[in-house]
């Protein structure tokens, strides 16, 4: 694989992509984005995502899991359903899973039980975790520590926290996923302080498309994987390293964590 970008987190099945997904992907692959990992947030979405990976083999991979917002939709068959889906080799991570107390779109107790089910599957299968945490740091860390042995195989997706939170995740063995949040001068202060201490062997980059479009792109409201280089440029600047070095490390880190092949 030549030097290029891997977007470890994009929501390609979001309705905003319904009409022009093929064009979005053409633009992305034409912008030196080698691989996109599609984020699943429900069992149904994971199944649809598998269809997408078959259409773009070795270019699109997928996660399989239930987002904490959707925890209420999970039934007693969650482990059985997920275990069946992740048998497909296009599934490279379990998630998006975790805890979100910012909105509590699902009750906390349900979020906790569904999250623990994901962690148990990860322990059994050794697949990496694609993790979500918002306003739930303490419970999130406790769940991970109570179920999994260190080092924990996974990524703190869309990390927006502070130095202390980042160091906690790094000590646990996690990679750190950086999004366009770093380009938002209204709220990126803590994140910028954190990335200055982020080891190169733990950094990953993602667009979280269609969300979190870099603020410099004022003409568009929808983010796309093709914008990943803008995030990388800002991150390299704040880390005080050459862009080429950052890109090489994010590429090798992504391949290593998700066991990607091309």
Structural class: alpha/beta
Strands, total number: 8
Q: pLDDT under 50 segments (min length 5)? A: none
- CATH topology call: TIM Barrel
Key descriptive features of the protein:
262 residues; alpha/beta; TIM Barrel; eight-stranded parallel sheet; 9 helices; 16% strand; globular
Task: Please characterize this protein's 3D structure.
The chain is α/β, with parallel strands linked by helices. The chain has one domain (5-258): TIM Barrel (Alpha-Beta Barrel), CATH 3.20.20.140. It is built from nine helices and eight strands. The protein has helices spanning 21-29, 43-55, 78-85, 108-125, 137-147, 163-172, 189-195, 228-239, 243-258; strands at residues 5-10, 33-38, 60-64, 91-100, 129-134, 154-156, 175-178, 203-205. It has an eight-stranded parallel sheet with strand order 1-2-3-4-5-6-7-8. Helix 5 links the parallel strand 5 (129-134) and strand 6 (154-156). The longest helix is centred in the middle third of the chain and has 18 residues, at 108-125. The termini are close together.
Q: Care to give the gist of this entry?
A:
The chain is of the alpha/beta class and 262 residues long. The protein has one domain (5-258): Metal-dependent hydrolases (TIM Barrel, Alpha-Beta Barrel). The protein has helices at residues 21-29, 43-55, 78-85, 108-125, 137-147, 163-172, 189-195, 228-239, 243-258; strands spanning 5-10, 33-38, 60-64, 91-100, 129-134, 154-156, 175-178, 203-205.
């Amino acid at each position: 694989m030549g030097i290029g970008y891997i977007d470890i987190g994009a929501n390609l099945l979001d309705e905003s992509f319904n009409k022009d997904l093929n064009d979005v992907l053409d633009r992305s692959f034409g912008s030196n984005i080698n691989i996109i990992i599609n984020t699943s947030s429900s069992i149904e979405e994971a199944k649809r995502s598998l269809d997408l990976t078959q259409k773009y083999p070795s270019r699109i991979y997928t996660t399989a899991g239930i987002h904490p917002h959707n925890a209420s939709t999970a039934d007693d068959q969650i482990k059985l359903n997920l275990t069946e889906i992740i048998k497909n080799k296009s599934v490279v991570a379990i998630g998006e899973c975790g805890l979100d107390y910012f909105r509590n779109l699902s009750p906390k107790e349900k979020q906790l039980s569904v999250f623990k089910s994901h962690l148990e599957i990860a322990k059994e299968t050794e697949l990496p975790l694609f993790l979500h945490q918002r306003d739930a740091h303490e419970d999130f860390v406790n769940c991970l520590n109570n179920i999994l042995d260190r080092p924990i195989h996974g990524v703190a997706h869309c990390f927006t926290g502070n130095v202390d939170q980042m160091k906690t995740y790094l000590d646990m063995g996690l990679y750190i996923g950086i999004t366009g949040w770093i380009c938002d001068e209204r709220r990126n202060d803590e994140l910028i302080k954190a990335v200055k201490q982020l080891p190169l062997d733990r950094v990953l980059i993602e667009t979280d498309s269609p969300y979190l479009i870099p603020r410099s792109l004022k003409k568009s409201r929808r983010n796309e994987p093709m914008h990943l280089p803008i995030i990388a440029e800002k991150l390299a600047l704040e880390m005080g390293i050459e862009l080429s070095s950052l890109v090489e490390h994010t590429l090798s880190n992504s391949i290593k964590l998700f066991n990607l092949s091309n």
